[in-house]
Structure prediction request, 253 residues.
Amino acid sequence: MTERRPFIAGNWKMFKTIREAVETAGALVGHVSDAAGVDIMIAPNFTALAAVREVLQGSAVMLGGQNLHWAPEGAFTGETSAGMLQDAGCRYVIVGHSERRQYFGETDETVNKKIRAALECGLAPILCVGETEKEREAKKTFSVLDKQIQNGLKDLRSADVGPMVIAYEPVWAIGTGKTASREQAQEVHRFLRSLMESIFGNDLASAIRIQYGGSVKPNNIKALMEMPDVDGALVGGASLDAATFSQILHFQS
Prediction:
C-alpha cells in the first residue's frame, strides 16, 4: 500500500486582521517545529497572505488560498487569480468549499474551471466535497459525492490530478459541533478512493490524500486519523487558535 504523508490544513475563513493573522501564524510556527511526519498548511484571508508568508519563511508551515477565479486576469472585480495566489506565496488553494457552494453560487462546473486554473499555475487544489444533512438522511451521500467528483474533475487526466488533495466535508458537520464518527468518515473516504480508482486508476487512487473536514478538534483527530483512508484534516474553527491547532497537528504524540 502507498504510504501517504498526513496533511492537516487550517482554513481561517473570514477571520483575523493582518495583525491578528501574523500573531497567530508566528505562534503556530513556534508550536510546530517538532511536528514531524505531517504536512501543514494555513489559509488566511487574502489581505493577510503577504504578511503571513514572511512569518512562515523557513518553517514547515505552507501557505494556501481560500478561493480563486478561473481566469488568469480580467475585469472581475473582487476576484483573485491563481497566478496572484502563487505570487503571494501560496502552494495550495481550497476549491469548492461548501460555504462557497451555499452562499456564492459555486457549482461543479465552476469548480472544474478553478481546478484547471490552479493546476496550470502550479497550485495544488484541495477539492472539497460533501453532502447536506437532508441528503445523508435520504441516503444520497454516495450519489452526491459521485456527481461532485465526476463533474469537478471532468476531462482531467491522472497526471493532472496527481498534486491534488480531496477534502470530504459533510456539510452537516461544518461549524455545527457535529462530527462524523470515524467509521462514517472511513466509509466515505473508502468510497472516494474507490471512485478515484475507477476514474484514474489504482496508482493515483492509492497516492491521493483525502482529508476529513467538519468540526475537527484535538479530542477527535486521533481517532479519525487511525482510519486507513483518512489522510488528514481540513480544520476550520479549531485552526484559529495556534495552541489548539498545534494539538491537532501533534495527533501522533
The two ends are 24 Å apart (CA to CA). The first strand starts at residue 7 and ends at 11. Strands lie at 7-11, 39-43, 61-65, 92-95, 124-129, 165-168, 209-212, 232-235. DSSP finds twelve helices and eight strands in the chain.
